Amino acid sequence: MTDAANSYPGERLGLPAQGPGSIGRIGRRIAALLIDYTAATVIAMAFLAYDPWALPYEAGWRQFAPMIVFAVIQILFLPTAGGSPGHRIVGMRVERLGGGWTGLWRPIVRTLLLILVIPAVIWDADQRGLHDKIAGTVLIRA
């Protein structure tokens, strides 16, 4: 076993240091998040009458429309396409730790924790957020 100074994210999980199958790095993660949330906002504006410039007391439930659409996108695409549209565009996919299909409950748990934000920004040495650790998933390069 190598010491922490010489290890790389994903080494403890048996993943390669770089290339396909390696841990998805922060730049790709942020790009995927921006793509997905932008798409969710556009969909919410087009179909749910979301107004990004409305004051919260005027917007009512619609202030949460982009987050709801974002969650639906994540929950639908993770088990069917192996990742959200943003993940797939930037060349990543979500897998069950150890490989295989994520199933149905993992995307739901992962998404609910992701929209809480805090679990997603607390990482371990393998750059897996708490949302991935709890759901038993890993975000890797495709």
From TrEMBL:
Subcellular compartments: Cell membrane
Membrane topology: Multi-pass membrane protein
Keywords: Cell membrane, Membrane, Transmembrane, Transmembrane helix
Name of the featured protein: RDD family protein
Stretches that traverse the bilayer: 30-50, 62-82
Pfam families: RDD (PF06271)
UniProt superkingdom: Bacteria
Residues in RDD domain copies: 25-136
Primary residence: membrane
